Amino acid sequence: FRRNPGEAEFHQAVTEVFESLEAVSVKHPEYAEAAILQRLCEPERQIIFRVPWVDDEGRVQINRGFRVEFNSALGPYKGGLRFHPSVYLGIVKFLGFEQIFKNSLTGMPIGGGKGGSDFDPRGKSDGEVMRFCQSFMTELYRHIGEYTDVPAGDIGVGGREIGYLFGQYKRITNRYESGVLTGKGLSWGGSLVRPEATGYGAVIFTEEMLKTRGQTFDGQRVVVSGSGNVAIHAIEKAQALGAKVVTASDSAGFIVDEGGIDLDLLRQIKEVERGRISEYAERRGSKKVKYVAGGSVWDVEGTVALPCATQNELGAEAAKKMVAAGTIAVAEGANMPTTAEATSIFQDAGVLFGPGKAANAGGVATSALEMQQNASRDAWTFEHTERRLTEIMVGIHDSCAATADEYGMPGNYVAGANIAGFVKVADAMLAQGVI
Ligand code: NDP
């Protein structure tokens, strides 16, 4: 911690992984001899840069850009870019660290990295977003590449931003290098199912957890937080499997819709108009809907909870209430939305708990499928790609469950994910020598 002062989220992510790895160090003393853990915690490369751009009023604006290339034992660095005012080095490092194990769990040949900026796309015009993205890429392009580092989207970075970033990369390098970014549009190298993948994957993972208790999504009452890419597609898949999803939220408040979320309306407001969740309640035209400004979406009772907004959004008080209200499963669509204390409360109460590095790995797995299609100059059908995603998510579930069993912690998906993700990376690092 002394080497990385003030990086609270990074400390939190590392602590959680280290707790799970105690059992591994007993079984594998060779990892300690090769200082695998110490090396894993030190990113291979960290890039911090100035991003100057001009706003619509002609004023010069300055943001800070980051790319942390954390670990390339299994493949080129892979992980998203986050544009949000809260972004600083500690957030990028926590996300990059998690990404190493998540990418390992997918079984695909991808290392771990993450990046972003404290730029806030909210309230900016398309022109401003474009100029920012072009300036960001004017520095980033020299660090990335199909065989080096392949960024993607995250909070605040969707198809629009990836388009501007890709355009600038192509212009600077004079290369149509499709595999340098994922999350691209369908007509220019993108993959079907990529937009849906994280949300769908989280629901598929949860369904597998539910099956271990003889249950399914059918008939569950589901509480979802967020209303971005992950939340919208988690809602869609949960509804398709017969669940009733009753909530969605943004950073200003949440809606409760006792009739079940109207997905078309939600998508129109969030994806087309880039509006706020409060507008949903105004436009739904139903007495069964209410909007709560501020507050906690976790006050709404449900049997399954899918936190899909941001880190540390679900704390101990909320977890206690949810356990008392009969929640049977929680799966993290977002990265580290549940605090360490809340996670323990769920686990101690026997609630099925799917950690983000397993439950939300469908997004990056499908990004790797996009890279495969780019490398082979091919485009797969929706059905084929979704089948691959489903196989991968079921595989991740089974590998977490089997690893938890093997290390004497049956049903502990946190430990299972951390250990299964870690061992593969550690073995590759051992094989590749002290680098
Ligand atoms: P989006 O930008 O599409 O949506 C983010 C959502 O979370 C918005 O509803 C946003 O509300 C809300 N949110 C963001 N910050 C806060 C905050 N501080 N407090 C409350 N609500 C907040 O992002 P994604 O859906 O892509 O990402 C959501 C989560 O999923 C993140 O943790 C991300 O790292 C993770 N994830 C995403 C993947 C992907 O494929 N997109 C892959 C794996 C993980 P508002 O509009 O008010 O900011």
UniProtKB/TrEMBL annotation:
Cross-referenced Gene3D superfamilies, in alphabetical order? Glutamate Dehydrogenase, chain A, domain 3, Leucine Dehydrogenase, chain A, domain 1, NAD(P)-binding Rossmann-like Domain
Instruction: Tell me which SMART domains the record gives.
Output: ELFV_dehydrog
Q: Which domain of life is it from?
A: Bacteria
Q: Return the Pfam families for the record.
A: ELFV_dehydrog (PF00208), ELFV_dehydrog_N (PF02812)
Q: Which InterPro entries match?
A: Aminoacid_DH-like_N_sf, Glu/Leu/Phe/Val/Trp_DH, Glu/Leu/Phe/Val/Trp_DH_C, Glu/Leu/Phe/Val/Trp_DH_dimer, Glu_DH, Glu_Leu_Phe_Val_DH, NAD(P)-bd_dom_sf, NAD_bind_Glu_DH
Q: What keywords were assigned to this record? A: Oxidoreductase
Signal peptide range in chain numbering: none
Occurrences of domain Glutamate/phenylalanine/leucine/valine/L-tryptophan dehydrogenase C-terminal (ranges): 191-433
* Complexes and interactors: Homohexamer.
Family under the similarity heading: Belongs to the Glu/Leu/Phe/Val dehydrogenases family.
Cross-referenced PANTHER family, in alphabetical order?
Answer: NADP-SPECIFIC GLUTAMATE DEHYDROGENASE 1-RELATED
Q: What is this protein called?
A: Glutamate dehydrogenase
- The organism named in the record is Glutamicibacter mysorens
